[in-house]
Every structure is written in structure tokens, then in C-alpha cells.
């Protein structure tokens, strides 16, 4: 007997997407047949397989193993292989997450095969078209027919671009994954002891976006600021950042601990116990807010403007003096409004996915 349930191909490829998929996939599989496709954009074990293990995500049905290369080459390989998988699986819908090359490739491959596309984290805008992520999210939104927005601001961004049909403000799916990760970290993570860190007495730093790693002047300015800060610093180093640090020849001072990419559970522990987080990651900005840890964003703009307006996030760019001053003068904000309707996102998305009519065969 054939399975009459909705069939969804979910496309993931990078750390933030594994986390978002973790929040959705178990709920989705109660009402639909999900095929999980990993493009292989993040292929290092520390950036990939460990997330499936720690977050209880079913291992992918497909791993395309595209690896790293230029944006065009990587996206092109993904398009070719995703098209073949979609033609074989014939899903009713393709579900994509966030703003990576995997997001764009999944959306484009599906749209060209006339398969409806649903985009989780739709409507985010930095208004900086120099960012590859901005191009990815804009194009993905314009080929999607279901757009799941984390906030009213995201909904308004889409309306300005003429996108009004199929738009739903559902909140943010990462909150459920974070709650799971923090609870598990309390039970099993030993990273603070291993790194000799004391709660609220260290800074956590993450840098991975191309605007910082590919611009030697920006990167040197950020790294120089880290050397000049007196607080203990722990810095999990993304593979791209490791290559960039080697390129500019930076030598960290003893108070800066460079470590390999941390697992999601260890990152939850590091984030939740830091005094302050310095990052260029959108996901980490949100996680810091939910955890009540102040954040300094090493960018000139952010898609998560609500965290800035709430006083928990400060844009400091890559100017060393601004970074140092912000670290020294930062004071804990008072109060934190509820943002991104955290508790409803997963349920809302699954309910909105379910009613689609199945495509006819042929």
C-alpha cells in the first residue's frame, strides 16, 4: 500500500540548519514522510555528524558530500545533485532553512522542477548585498510559496518586496533546540572544566562570516582587539577562520584560548556561562538573547535587529577600539521582552505544511 502522507524533502548543509532541522524533524515525521538531505556543505565531523548524534536527528537519507569550494562551484554541484534526488523522490514539498548556499540550491532546484518550496527563517534582511547570505535569503524568499517568518519585522521586509501570499509569522524554531541543548549540556558537558573556565568570568568569541574572514583589515582589527582585552577568552575556530588566521599570521596572547569547533552541546555550555559573547553569527546572537548573556556583534548590521532594540545586542563592527570599549563598559541590561514567539514555532510550521494537496503522478 502506498504512503498517502505528505512527502517532504528537507535540505540541510551547515551547522545552523542542523539545529533548525532538529527542532522540526521529529514533529514533522509524526504527520509526514520526510526525506532528509545533507548537501555536505559542512563536512568536518565537528561541524556536521556530531550534531546529528547530539541532537537526536535521524541521520540523512542522502549525503551529497559537495565539500567546500567557491560559491558558484559549490552551489552548482548542489543544484545538479539535488535535482536528481528530487526527481527520484518526487516530494510534495521541499523545506529549506536559513541563508546558506544549501538553502539557495535547494530552493532553486525545487522551483525549477515546480515543487513548492517552504522557507524557514524567511524575510530576514541585513540590507547588505555584499553578504553572500543576503543574496541567498532574498532569492530563496522570491521562489518560495510558504514563508515562515520569525518576527513581524521579517514579515514587513517581505511586504516591501511585494511578497504577501503564503507569509506566516511563526516565531523562531531554534529556541526549542536551545532548550534541549542547554538541558543536555548541564548533564554531560565538561568543557568548562577542561578549559579551566569559571562561570561568568570569560568571554566567548565566534567569527566565521566572509565579511570578516575574507577581509584582512577587518580580521586583523578584530584579532588585535582580542589580544588587548584582559578577560579570559575562549575562541572556537571555524575551519574558514583557521585558514584566515594563518594567512594574516596572528599570534594570540596567553589569555586567548583557540579551540577546535565545539559540538552543539559544548557550545550551549559555553554560551550559557559566558560573561559576554562576541560573534558575527546570527544564530549565536539569538541564543545569547534567550540565555540572558549580553552580545557584541562583530558586524555593521544585523538581521536580528529586535535584540539590539531590546538592549541585549550591540553592533560594534570590526573596529578594534569600539570592541575594546564595549567590552570594558558593558553593563547588564534590565529586562528582556519575549521575542520570536519561541514556544509556537515548530507546531505552527508543521500545521502549515500538512494541508498541501499531493501532486499528481505522471
Give a concise summary.
It is built from 16 helices and 13 strands. The chain is of the alpha/beta class.
Protein traits:
362 residues, seven-stranded parallel beta sheet, 16 helices, alpha/beta, Rossmann fold, 2 domains, globular
Low-confidence stretches: 358-362
Structural class of the secondary structure composition? alpha/beta
Helical stretch count?
A: 16
Q: Mind telling me which CATH architecture of the largest domain this is? A: 3-Layer(aba) Sandwich
Any idea of the CATH class of the largest domain? Alpha Beta
Your description of this structure?
There is one protein chain. This protein is of the alpha/beta class. It folds into two domains: 6-172 and 342-353, Glycogen Phosphorylase B (Rossmann fold, 3-Layer(aba) Sandwich), CATH 3.40.50.2000; 177-329, Glycogen Phosphorylase B (Rossmann fold). Helix content is 45%, strand content 15%. The chain has 16 helices and 13 strands. The chain has helices at 15-28, 49-54, 71-89, 101-112, 132-143, 152-160, 174-188, 191-194, 210-213, 216-228, 239-248, 264-273, 282-291, 305-309, 320-329, 345-353; strands at residues 6-12, 32-38, 62-63, 93-97, 117-120, 146-149, 167-169, 203-206, 233-236, 256-259, 276-279, 295-297, 313-315. A seven-stranded parallel sheet has the order 3-2-1-4-5-6-7, sandwiched between helices. The chain has a six-stranded parallel sheet with strand order 10-9-8-11-12-13, with helices on both faces. Strand 12 (295-297), helix 14 and strand 13 form a beta-alpha-beta unit. The radius of gyration is 20 Å and the shape is globular. Residues 358-362 have low confidence and may be disordered.
